[in-house]
Amino acid sequence: MLQLLRTAIGYFNEDNFLTRLLKDDDALFSAFITAKYHAIVEEELIAIIAGAINEGKRRGRIRDVDEHVVAYAGLKLFQAFSYMRTGKFPPGKEDQEYYTTVLTDFIATALENKQR
Hints:
Elements: H1 2-14, H2 16-22, H3 31-58, H4 67-81, H5 96-111
Helix pairs in contact: 1-5, 3-4, 4-5
């Protein structure tokens, strides 16, 4: 799951067309189509993430959490750190590898089953 996150962040930082699609670029689609598309994509992504969390729980690697709520929160964190940047990073910390490492460490620590 963490490798997928690292790869996806790198990909979205390089692919301007896909980034514009996911950012809700009005120049590409009407508002109706864009909103409908985003809802479908988000639902599918949350289901995939929730499935990965469930598998981790089954294997005892992830603690008992509400996989759908955590999947939603994880998706929003991913968006904030990748294609929908919601804030500016301090100088010297804008490098993709730096914030990807911080984000993956945060998620791994939050989900880790420490009783293993």
